[in-house]
Amino acid sequence: MAVLVVATAVTVGTGVGARLACSRPCISDLPSLYRSRAIRPDAPPYLDRNLEYPVLVGAAFYAATFVSSGARSFFTVTGLGLAVLALIGTYLLARRAGRRAWYWALAPPLLLYGAANWDLLAVVPAIAGIVAFGEGLDATSGVMLGIGAAAKLYPGLFVPVFVAARLRDRDARGALRLLTGALATVALVNVPVLAASPSGWLYPLRFQSRRDATWGSLWHYVLSPPGIGALLPAGVARSLTNGGAVIAVVAGVAAVSVLVWRGRLDAVVGGGIATAVFLVANKVYSPQYDLWFVPFFVLLAVPWRDYAAFVVLDAAVFGVVFGRLGHHYRWTVTWAWFLGALVLARALTMAWTLRDARPLPQSLPEPPRSGPAEVPAGEAEVSVA
Hints:
By secondary structure, the chain is mainly alpha-helical.
């Protein structure tokens, strides 16, 4: 376990240190948002300043301003907090999956995105919720998923999937504890802000609804193909992406929940599918969202080749996106279509990974002692259907 913790610290620390090596911390939303949103101890988010993130991210943002004197120190403080979360994630994953936790500790997305945004504020509670569910701690699982949903929404998608699993097992009390824990936690975090400033609390929803599909989303290549221009007026395209994304996510999670309830799908595999549905259907896709999917390479038995394909594609998307943002090359239609091909390949890789996936054994593994373990070939040949 100690070696895993050290490896995780090196991975995240390298990402933080590389950004600090820039004259202004680079390739991170944290310092730029500190400068642009003007949130300070005397100017809290939602109440005095608009912020496009859910409430728990706003709380973390606001707390860091009390010990920050500028964008650089804000990044440093927040980066250290996120590094601690990554270490907690390592502990939880190692406790559940043993040596497979190396896939998290050395994950390139953890290096690239651990300090890019507040995603670990949702990813680690999501891991905790999954691990608690596997250990039969339903109320704890619900609370952890509620915390994650209060930061980045997607962990909330696990709640109906896990409730369906408990109902499948005829454990109505467990289902109720999980659901109650999640809803109570989300309410506890959100209701005070909603009561104090309804407009500020609703701002993230307004902000996201007004965004066009980004060029990391498949919607962009359907409605605004590079080199062709918008096929539809901006307002119409925006309405289609908003409605289409919501319908796709709701329908996808509902279908997964039904399959879990019928016993045709493992609950953790279902959580992975729900995450993939959200990532693929969303009209906004930032490269750091890949960090959401990494824990499933640990919590599910999948072949190492799927992990390798995912991280290679992730690194390629990172290079193209931040190469463009950093003006390191001239953006052309060819580059735009190349990025579209990478985005499609990444979506297909997630689907392939989940097709290969099978649940880990229920018995706890031996403590991790060495490097990443390959999955025996036979473990990769089980369909989730």
